[in-house]
Amino acid sequence: MDENNGKVVITEDISGKKFVEEIIQRMRESNLISQDLKVDIDYGARPCRHKLTRIIKLYLTAPYILGKKKKPYNKVILLCDGDGNPGKVFDEVKDHVPKDLLDRVIIIVLDHEIEEWICTSLGIRWSFKPSKALDQYVRRNIKKDGYRKRDLPKYIKYLDINKLLNNSRSFKEFYNAIVNHKK
């Protein structure tokens, strides 16, 4: 196979998948990444999920992906919640990466959860779970029924990419993984 199929970002869940799709689109619109850069998004990157090894192998080696003949991806970017212990989560996820594919997998672990990117953008402080702090903020300032995980993609409008690049380790790692710089 003479040509790679770009990169695939794998988030933990469908809400994260849709949110990251919106982030990639915003980066393209802001000319932070090339329009030609091939980045696909999927979900299923939960720590200690036994299928994770198979998912990684599928995207990096399989000539057929989801029933369609495709070239394997060049890189897999795993985006995982750190739940307050990103080092432990990183080690758990790394244990599922086949040793012969380690150089083609980038593991990015958020300090807590993806909502921290919205909180950082809005200047919301949190002590444990950013989603709880975001919920309180939304109830006070945006809508009475608060934040729900399924609404995550709707919060893209609050994301400040420049602020995140300067203030969020995990977002900077994510951006660098997308544009192919070192982590």
Describe, in plain words, how this protein is organized in 3D.
The protein has 183 residues and is an alpha/beta fold. The strands form two sheets. Strands 2-1-5-6 form a four-stranded parallel sheet, with helices on both faces.
Helix-residue proportion: 25-40%
Return Rg in Å. Answer: 16 Å
Unreliable spans: none
Could you tell me how far the N terminus lies from the C terminus, measured between alpha carbons in angstroms? 27 Å
The number of helical elements comes to: 7
What strand line-up does the widest sheet have? 2-1-5-6
Spell the H/E element sequence: EHEHEEEHEHHHH
Sum up the overall morphology in one term: globular
Strand content: 5-15%
Mean pLDDT across residues: 88
Compact overview of the structure:
The chain is an alpha/beta fold. It is about 40% helix and about 15% strand.
Keywords:
single chain, 183 residues, alpha/beta, four-stranded parallel sheet, two-stranded antiparallel sheet, 7 helices, 6 strands
Describe the SSE topology:
Elements: E1 7-11, H1 14-29, E2 39-43, H2 52-61, E3 64-65, E4 68-69, E5 75-80, H3 86-94, E6 105-109, H4 115-122, H5 130-141, H6 161-167, H7 169-179
